[in-house]
Amino acid sequence: MATSIADLLRYREIESPLIRLDPRVKLLISIYLFTSTLIFDRPPLLSAIVSTAVLLTVGLTLHSIEASRRLLRTIRALSFFLAFVVLLNVLGFVTQGLNPLTLEFVAITSSQLLRFVAAIVSFSFFLLTVSPEALAATLRSMRLPHDYVFAMTAAVRFAPLFLEEIQEVIDSQRLRGVDYSTRNPVKRLRNYVRAFVPVVINALKRSFEMAEALEVKCYGAVRNRTSFYVLRLRKSDVMVLTATTAVFASLVTLRLFL
Amino acid sequence: MLEAVNVRYEYHGGKVALDGVDLQVREGEVVALMGSNGAGKTTLMKVLVGLLRPKSGKVVLDGSEISELSSKEVARRIGYVPQIADSLFFLESVREEMRYALRNFGIGDADHRVEFLLERFGLSELRDRSPFSLSGGQKKRLSIAVVLAWDPKYVLLDEPTLGQDKSGREAIAWTIESLRREGRGVVVATHDVEFVSELDPQVTLLSSGRVLASGQAYEVLSDEKLMKSANLLPPQSVIISKQLTRLGIRTTHRVNELVSSIATLMRCKEFGDKHR
Questions:
Q1: Is 0.90 exceeded by the ipTM?
Q2: Residue B190 lies in a domain
Q3: A110 and A237, same structural domain?
Q4: Best of B53, B61, B83, B87 to mutate (most A CBs within 10 Å, chain A)
Q5: Which domain holds residue A48?
Q6: What is the pLDDT of residues A33-85, one digit of tens each?
Q7: Domain span including residue B121
Q8: Residue A97: what are its φ and ψ, rounded to 5°?
Q9: CB atoms B80 and A175 under 8 Å
Q10: Which end of chain B is more exposed for a tag (fewer CB within 10 A), N or C?
Q11: A238 shares a domain with A188
Q12: Other Cβ atoms within 10 Å of A49 Cβ, number
């Protein structure tokens, strides 16, 4: 499960005109996609249409890297959270004295599930297509202090590794007879908590190693840093930015007058 | 017998890690999986132990397909020591680590075995220390001892000599030899040719996920062409025996035969005068 979720965050080098866009444009597209799933919360049919559109947009954009399959795998890994959304809806209906076995319940729940997946996927679109270096340049262009930018890009860089390591630890413990498929929830939770001990210790160790590596490379020796990778908007970036902003503005207007 | 039959495994993104690999490990046999980095050794180990499911082909453990067995059943019979030991530990002391799997498998009264293994791997004085405070080599030895504690029928060791000093290597070599004598099947994934040359096991040479050659270490390691195509250097004994052959002395790369050839040469005054 952890490796599938890691797939949602890991950048892969891809060759495609859309992927070559300026990272700031991609960040804005991500924000537009994410916001669209939030502002269209009612009626359920409209919410489902917008969420499906978001999923299709991301799916088609990433088609060149066979990411559709990867996205499906990730959605499967999120099934626990999706089941939780369904459970909350059932509880909501039951406590209000309503019957969950109705078409209305199905419509509301499926639109919420779609929104949940679309919201996650819209942000993963940014992380999948923007390298940590480009992310750092984007944050720097927002005039954020370099230390914060560095900490954030390091976190993004290490998140998939961290999740992979969790899977490795779970595998190692399974090989020592730990039963992760037990139906006893307390036992299962205890097993997962145990898996976190080596992961946290390794993360701490890695952070010390990273600090040493930074010292060796004279991190912070110069107050005013220059940057090798400077972002510049091209004509295609401006065109895509204008088009997506126009579409988003029309969606917002539509929402205001609906 | 532990057997991989025509195993193919692909990583996400379609990279083929194993392509039609066959491997047989009989009881009382040591098999060394050799190959350069990325040849597919670790992937094959993980497939053998059921951590990775092959895209096609199967793994058969004593007549049953591994996919039909529970992970606990497989783990009880196949002990796998991963390359990086850090992911294995999470308890307060070395001794607790040794006992943990025994509790999971419901094995009682194994204190004697635990103490014996700690002694064997030079860890008895560290029994109350946190496993996280051990050095890399000690952690590796502990990871092997932890797996041997529940006495599995097959033992898979991934790069066992990584970070080991002389005594560590000797302890590991001795353990593999003991396991062989006890009738257990052992698979060692390594590119340490000197270590394999000392063990003299069956060797399966992997390159880009395919089996290049299989045979006795003596035959495989002395085939220069084969070793070159697997991107491995032959062991020192092979290099020396080749040099001697060039000088007209017929010998093999087995260390004891080499030594006797060299000893004979040193006694031969005529040869010494000629090549001084």
A1: no
A2: yes
A3: yes
A4: B87
A5: 1-130+233-258
A6: 888 877 777 666 666 677 777 766 666 666 555 556 666 666 677 777 888 88
A7: 2-221
A8: 75, 20
A9: yes
A10: C
A11: no
A12: 13
